[in-house]
Amino acid sequence: MTTASGRPGNRRLLLQLVWDVAAPIALFYGLRAVGASTFAAMLASSVLPLATTAVCWLRDRRLEGIAAFVGGVMLLGAVASLISGDTRFMLARDGWVTAVAGLCFLGSVWANRPLAYLGARPLLEGRFRSDGTPWETLWHNEPVFRRIWRVSTVIWGIALLADAAARVVMAYTLPVNVVPGLGGLLWPVTMVLLQLLNGVYYRLAGLWRLTAGSGRRGGRRQDAAECS
Fold this sequence. Notes:
Layout: H1 10-33, H2 38-45, H3 47-60, H4 65-84, H5 87-107, H6 115-124, H7 135-141, H8 143-173, H9 179-205, H10 207-212, H11 217-227
Helix pairs in contact: 1-2, 1-3, 1-9, 3-4, 4-5, 5-8, 8-9
């Protein structure tokens, strides 16, 4: 399901979330119920998100930057788990992957385009409180717009590192059969808190005024010219 602009709709995003988060957990506990080892069940459940990335590539012959990044990091985590053969390391894999993601967010703050901007643009540009101005135009013309996305990227990076630390602690301290379920629950908690925190920041920083045209320098110059 896509919107008129060809972007994935909310239903497709929800289905992808269920597949990437809920399905691996269900597969893990299903395999454990029929007698599979913890390591084998974890390894099998890690294949599903990688399969999603592969299907997206085969269908579209391209990957969004963040999808390619997540898929690559997860693949490296699976390979490392196979090499180590350690169950606790496999349980902590999501923590290591999330830590790498957090560091990449922080490292992208001064890149050409920070990761928070790259991730939000396909979802929000032209669809939420927008007067139709392309985000690239705002990026080039509005220093405040650039600063907002760099600060948001820092918020994402710090939150992902905190999430990663919690996952690693759980993996090495809690019973092995408990960790996958708690790890799955931690994802929506982290994402909801991030959305709330960023939503408050975007409002206070004036992001939606910029995208709607009322907070832009060009808009203020035009209003001044009309008044004169």
